[in-house]
Design a protein that fits this description.
The chain is mostly helical. It has helices at residues 5-26, 31-42, 47-53, 60-74. It is elongated.
Length: 79
């Protein structure tokens, strides 16, 4: 694949967004929320895997709905 200016520009924009997202995740104060976001968005785990890795006390819906969704709603990021 040939590297073009457009490809390089897109790569730089993507990397800039990734750095912003990483900083945002790192700034989450609640360790449980930060861990869930890290596992899902950075490491590519499924919500089921996250539930299993955190002791299996809760199912995947707990982490998706009660952790992620509640956090995003509380901050006005989603409705």
């Amino acid at each position: 694949m040939e590297i073009t200016r457009a490809n390089l520009s897109n790569y730089r924009k993507t990397m800039k967004w990734i750095r912003k997202i990483d900083k945002w995740i790192d700034s989450i104060e609640d360790p449980e929320v930060r861990r869930a976001f890290d596992l899902y968005y950075r490491q590519g785990h499924t919500w089921r895997q996250i539930a299993q890795e955190t002791g299996g006390i809760y199912d995947e819906n707990y982490f998706r709905i009660m952790i992620r969704d509640r956090y995003l709603k509380k901050r006005g990021i989603v409705r």
